[in-house]
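Before the break, one more example. Copy the sequence into your notebook; we will annotate it together after we see the structure.
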Amino acid sequence: MNKRLGLVGFGLSILAISSTIGLAQAPLIPFHAKIQRIQQTFGTNGSLEVEESITDDYALNSQGSAYTESEIIDSITGQMTGSLKILESARDGRTYLIDEVKKTVVIAPHQSQTKQFQPDPSLQRKTCLDRTCAVYPPQEGSEVWVDVELGYPMYEHREILLAGGGKMVRVSRVTEITVNQEPDPKLFIVPSFSGYSVTDLTR
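Here is what the structure looks like once it is written out:
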């Protein structure tokens, strides 16, 4: 599996969680979080083939724009192997997937979040960084803790079967979080993309 696709896949898993839970009635709560991910790929014989450390900065403002900046580090060599930015703009209704290594940009339609997601109140509760989380029961090797106020995954353990018999194990945990403070507005300004190869899927 492509390393960058793995990052995008985690974002899609958040959307999958969101689709299973109701919408809260409160307005959007802005927050900023730092996330640490360990991603391991195992071969068909169970041996570890690749291990990567992925560090994310995630920010959501009260208007529904979100910004993610990710760095991928090879845990064996210590070298950075990828740098990805995702800007989900509520202002123009587009998502910008920016690969800083390949110097490419993919622009896609984006439906802005207008309300925070609220997990099922009957789910088991656990605590992460003093935040109350709803625990989604393990399914096919995965478990997710979702912040009951923000609707954001604070912890995730996921196992993904790969073609050919191998598997990928991804563990993600929020390590820092600041709530009810607007992120830096500069994060949500769409850059010019001078010198980048741009693919626009909105046309």
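The chain has one helix and 14 strands. Confidence is low (pLDDT under 50) at residues 1-26. Try to locate both features in your own notes.
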